[in-house]
């Protein structure tokens, strides 16, 4: 059979006589097609649904939060866009070259889930705490002046990273996209509850030990610039997520038996458990070698590309 999309989001089959027979009515029984469709639908229609949502909230009668099992607030966005670095690492340096990578939307895990470390020969597995932006409307070629209007909300992100895979020293898609390596939680917080997203406290605790501990004020390129640049490259859709990078001072190993709690004030916190069938181990605490390498790079930066905004 020849299956085609045509006209106004029609799906059909191309018959032997080269006519197109519509199939949309056959598929209505399956809508929404899955949980991944619910959030984009909610975001797209949020303005018209908001009063009904508030009425239900005010009426009470919901389940206590302690009686429910939270999952990742993102199920399978069409894009997870991640920033390489994007923090000054506590130094006073000029902006670096802006670089991004995509992470597999199949990598997602949420509060209480287990991160499975694969048997691939990584040199270490790191936690990376980040603030993530959830897109609220179809967006292309945003200006920095209107970029914040495209945001539906914010969530906490842990970009689990396998180091040493692939042919370069930089972990990107290959080291980032294993199943369970995209931790999001505990929910999406709308902007009216946040205030300034560029002045929030980000932490990671592993087994009660404080590791990462920084503020988003150290962000090198702030959210309006990120959204404007990324949307100049690719369209952004409701439910897409932009992960704004991390401060590498405080990174440490994730290993079998760990519980990793990632938190951002005014948003919330969530926990990931770690399982490694090979029971590999690394030094506990902060990875000081990684921190030193990044500090050295920060003190001897690559200049921003010609023509980039400063």
Count of discrete structural domains: 1
SSE-based structural type: alpha+beta
Could you tell me how far the N terminus lies from the C terminus, measured between alpha carbons in angstroms?
53 Å
Q: What would the CATH topology be? A: Fumarylacetoacetate hydrolase, domain 2
Q: How many DSSP helices?
A: 6
CATH superfamily: Fumarylacetoacetase-like, C-terminal domain
Unreliable stretches (pLDDT < 50, length at least 5) are 305-310
CATH architecture: Alpha-Beta Complex
- Determine the fraction of residues in helical runs and give it as a percent range: 10-25%
Strand content: 25-35%
Q: Please tally the β strands and state the result.
A: 17
Strand order of the largest sheet: 5-4-15-9-10-12-6
Task: Evaluate the radius of gyration.
Answer: 21 Å
Can you tell me the CATH class? Alpha Beta
In N-to-C order, the SSE pattern is: EEEHHHEEEEEEEEHEEEHEEEH
Q: For the residues shown, what is the average pLDDT? A: 91
Shape: globular
Largest sheet: 7 strands, mixed
Strand and helix layout:
Layout: E1 2-6, E2 10-14, E3 20-22, H1 24-27, H2 38-44, H3 46-59, E4 80-83, E5 100-103, E6 108-109, E7 114-116, E8 124-126, E9 129-135, E10 151-159, E11 161-163, H4 173-176, E12 182-189, E13 201-206, E14 209-215, H5 223-233, E15 241-243, E16 259-264, E17 268-275, H6 288-299
Parallel strand pairs: 4-15, 6-12, 7-17
Antiparallel strand pairs: 1-2, 2-3, 4-5, 8-11, 9-10, 9-15, 10-12, 13-14, 13-16, 16-17
